[in-house]
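Re: How this chain folds, sequence and tokenised backbone to follow
How to read it: Take the token row as a discrete description of the fold.
Start of record: The labelled sequence and token lines come straight after this line.
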Amino acid sequence: MIQQSKVNTTTNKNIGKEVLNKKLGNPIMQLRLTCNSPLNFYNPWASETSVPVDETIVTSSGKMLLLDRLLPALFKRNHKVLIFSQFKTQLDILEDYCRELRRWKVCRIDGSVAQDDRRQQIAEFNNNPEYKVFLLSTRAGGQGINLASADTVILFDSDWNPQQDLQAQDRAHRIGQKNPVVIFRLATKGTVEEDLLLSADAKRRLEKLVIKKGGFKTMGQKIVDADGEGEGMSRDALKALLLRDGEVYRYKGGDEILSEQDLEILCDRSDAAYERAERGEGDKEGFKIVETKLGGLMEGMGKRKGSTSATAA
């Protein structure tokens, strides 16, 4: 009893110290960490290696609950997955979850990984079918890496700069990719992450609007009409550019995180599924599918094209 009391006292001191350290940081950053997992503020498995990882690493976070339902369904269908996060502490949590709790073979790249280790892990992941999940920090794993053996990207948290997320997604969109690539973006409803995604989405729309309005065809060359004036933009084309891309799936709560029907819809990549999406015959109650093109708004996904799915936890 005395020994247990000493352990509890030490743990409480460690927790208090970690929380006090967090108070010195950017409050927006701390709110983002909270959306990911409360274990970002105190991770008992990082400080006490003798403590076995248990299910609380999953049940303490809505995003982890979604991930825990989604990953086995993807692995069952022989998909390889890249998981990106902005935070090293979150990568630690994800690694403990994959390696220690679920016993999956996992690779990891962040800013502290040496170049030789990077090359070795990339080769292992691309060539060894037993490795099905790769953890990467968005900034460190966003450039110069070819992971075309993966056909699924999960953005565990998003960047204020949408180009960083796009560069991360491109690790799977590389030479040698033979399958359609699906991107899942996890976000927590009613939190700072909504503001972040709105800001990033506005930047993307502004970028498309500026490029289209400028009429850039090639470097330094504008599209001009017969009168020598710059090409105008129709109201429909402008409206299409101002709409966001991708699929949106909203989890409405309840006892079941993702039903088997939800998983079938999220994981279905058959030709028939793409054709149904093109015709707008998907599950409209759960999903809204939008593809923005310069010619206007198209409901549905182009066949054999990757899509972005935002999942609200």
Q: What stands out?
A: The first strand starts at residue 81 and ends at 85. Confidence is low (pLDDT under 50) at residues 1-7, 218-231, 284-313. Residues 95 and 106 are 7 Å apart (CA to CA).
